[in-house]
Amino acid sequence: MGGASRYQAADIIDVSERTLKRWRSECGTVVEDQRPQAAQGRQPHQLTHEEEQTILNTCHRPEYQSLPPSQIVPLLADNGVYLASESSFYRVLKKHHQQHHRGRTKARRTVPAPTSFTATGPNQIWSWDISYCASVVRGQHWYLYLIIDIYSRKIIAWEVHETESGDLAKQLMERALLREKCWRQPPVLHSDNGAPMTSYTLKARLTELGMLMSYSRPRVSNDNPYSEALFRTVKYCPAWPTKGFASLSAVREWMLVFERAYNEQHLHSGIQYVTPADRHRGVDRKRLERRKAVYESAKRRYPKRWSGSTRNWEVTGSVSLNPGKVQEIERNKKAA
Fold first, then answer.
1. What's the confidence (pLDDT) of residue 56?
2. pTM (two decimals)
3. For residue range 152-162, what is the model confidence (pLDDT) as tens digits?
4. Better pLDDT: 19 or 278
5. What is the DSSP letter of 305?
6. Which of 12, 32, 44, 273 has its CA 20 to 30 A from that of 159?
7. Strands 141-149 and 155-161
């Protein structure tokens, strides 16, 4: 190398310094890279070929083929089955070139933390919003009114109308309170600053009911993330008609089916992959305890495959909306 230092030589030939050091023998001569000829070592706890094939066959089953491993693994645990960890599922799928982004969704992004009240149980904080449902006729659409409980993620109530209005929103809120039997102890209601949400008709009725109202900050689009996330789930559902609905009744019929599937069957990632209805009823703890037992049993059978504890199947705790706003209020009190 003509007296050049190792790092300079490595930079010239565009390899790392460690690679260049490995290429040199003990006597200083350069030898051929031996890595391509090296035999692949087998890890002592590596999945066998049969176990990998079982994972692939499971992912190919009709009931799992449209689900990611993050959904498949909890469902298997519910049935008392443990094949491998969630990361192993992803690793096997990637190895066999079956881990690809599907559908029209964009890559996942970090959602800003919600702000202001904290729910420790169901029917303490509701979030609601209105979204468009397109028609097959260009320029025509209907309005989907949707209320979600942020603690359980359950769809509390919904309606589809031809117009946006505070009076329709008021009627929806009244029916939701009656349905959840919380008329005497109404939850906090969070929304953005749309016209129906801030209408005098709605605000007057909610004040009469003793229902505290919370609003997104002006010109901040991510202050109502629970409702926005739910609308995304609705419209990116595989059964959503991308070319629009034929009629108002067709939208309502579709939402009836979706509500049942979402509340009773959908495993929500934000609440440890239990259904919103289970968490709302308070039976999610038993379901998670059964999963924990399945994992502990698997660890006893294959203890060397775990370097630490099993997957965390603890119940999700309290859920907050706008914690930054609460902190700001406390700072203002101290400053005063």
1. 94
2. 0.72
3. 999 999 999 99
4. 278
5. G
6. 273
7. antiparallel
